[in-house]
C-alpha cells in the first residue's frame, strides 16, 4: 500500500494522503491479483454502457454516484488499486442494497422509495433499462474486489470529499425534478427528494440538501466504512 500512515484525527492529512495514493495507483503494478477474464468482461460492459449512456442521457448522467463508482472500478481493477476499488465500495454499497430492495419491491407491486420506478417505465428503451441492472451485481463485485485487494482505510475520507463536491454540483447547477424530463437526468443523486417528478415537501429544500451532506458521508458511508474495516483485510504492500 502506498502513502504514509497519518493520524485518523487529521482529516486534511488523510484526504491529502488519499489523493497522493490515487495518483500512485495509476503507476504500473507488478503481478496480478484479479483474473484477466474479469477485467476484460468488465471493460467490455463499460465499453457498451458509457457510449450508450452518453448518447441517451448525456454527460451529466455520470454525476450519479453509481456511475462514478463504475468508472472508478474500471480504473481500479486494471491498476489493482485497493484505494480505487475501496472508494466506490464504501460509497455505494449501502445505497445499492437499497436499490436492489426497492427494485424487488417494485417488481412485487409494493414500491418502497420510488428510486427504481424508471426501470418499469415502458416508454424507456428496454436495452437502457437492462443496462441499469448493473446496480444489482455491482455491490457483489465490489465486495469481491475489496476481499481480493484489501480495504484501504482512507477510502471513506476520499469518497466523502468527492461525494460532497458532487452533491453541491447537482444541487446548484443541475436541473431539479420535473414530470416531463424524459431521459434527461434530473434530481441527480436525489438532492431534491426521492422522486424525479416532483421535489419533496417534508422540509425546506435547503434542509433536505443539508441532511444529505450529513447522511451520505457520516451515516451511509460511515457505517459501511466501519463494517469493511472489521470484515475485510487491509491491503498488502507490493
Please, could you describe this protein's structure?
The chain has helices at residues 11-25, 36-57, 65-79, 82-107, 126-131, 134-149, 155-173, 205-231. It is globular, with a radius of gyration of 18 Å. Helix 1 (11-25) packs across helix 7 (155-173) and helix 4 crosses helix 8 (205-231). The chain contains eight helices and no strands. It starts with 10 loop residues before the first helix and ends in a 7-residue tail after the last helix. By secondary structure, the chain is mostly helical. Residues 1-8 and 25-30 have low confidence and may be disordered.
Task: Describe the protein's topology.
Layout: H1 11-25, H2 36-57, H3 65-79, H4 82-107, H5 126-131, H6 134-149, H7 155-173, H8 205-231
Helix pairs in contact: 1-7, 2-3, 3-4, 3-6, 4-6, 4-7, 4-8, 7-8
Q: How many extended strands?
A: 0
Poorly predicted segments: 1-8, 25-30
The computed structural class is mainly alpha
Termini Cα gap:
6 Å
Order of helices and strands: HHHHHHHH
The amount of helix comes to 55-70%
Number of helices: 8
- Described by the principal axes of the CA atoms, the overall outline is globular
The quaternary organization reads as single chain
The value of Rg in angstroms is 18 Å
**What amount of the residues lies in strands?**
under 5%
Instruction: Write down the overall mean pLDDT.
Output: 88
| Largest pleated sheet | none
